[in-house]
Design goal:
This protein is an alpha+beta fold and 115 residues long. It has one domain. Helices cover 31% and strands 26% of the residues. The chain has a four-stranded antiparallel beta sheet with strand order 1-2-3-4, with helices on one face. A hairpin with a 2-residue loop joins strand 1 and strand 2.
């Protein structure tokens, strides 16, 4: 009986887990296989949209297209650095948004400094 309850709990957890995934959950990767530029570009667009939706970026960022994606040397090895340029941003120092991902494609950070 005890193992039946444990099995039922495990099955219900596995079924409910996808429902609990946050927006951008499709951009969470396991392992060390490097992500392609296309995957990282898509994940960066999703992350930018979620930042706009959360009010952390002005709505003018919603329509901004990616400027470039490149592999750079980060603190823990290679990282993807994706940039977006928004000349309509009110603060001139914040006209470029940088979104960083690990080489396998997991989100690290977003900022306007590129560091």
């Amino acid at each position: 009986m005890k193992s039946l309850v444990i099995a039922a709990a495990l099955v219900s957890t596995l079924i409910a887990a996808p429902a609990l995934a946050a927006e951008g959950g499709s951009c969470h990767f396991h392992g060390s296989k490097p992500a392609t530029e296309a995957v990282v570009t898509d994940c960066a667009a999703q992350r930018k949209a979620s930042l706009v939706k959360a009010g952390k970026l002005d709505a003018s960022w919603q329509a901004v297209k990616q400027d470039k994606a490149e592999l750079v040397d980060g603190k823990k090895g290679k990282e993807w650095k994706v940039s977006f340029k928004n000349p309509a941003a009110p603060d001139a120092a914040k006209q470029t948004l940088y979104i960083f991902f690990s080489q396998p494609g997991n989100f690290i950070a977003a900022n306007h400094t590129g560091q």
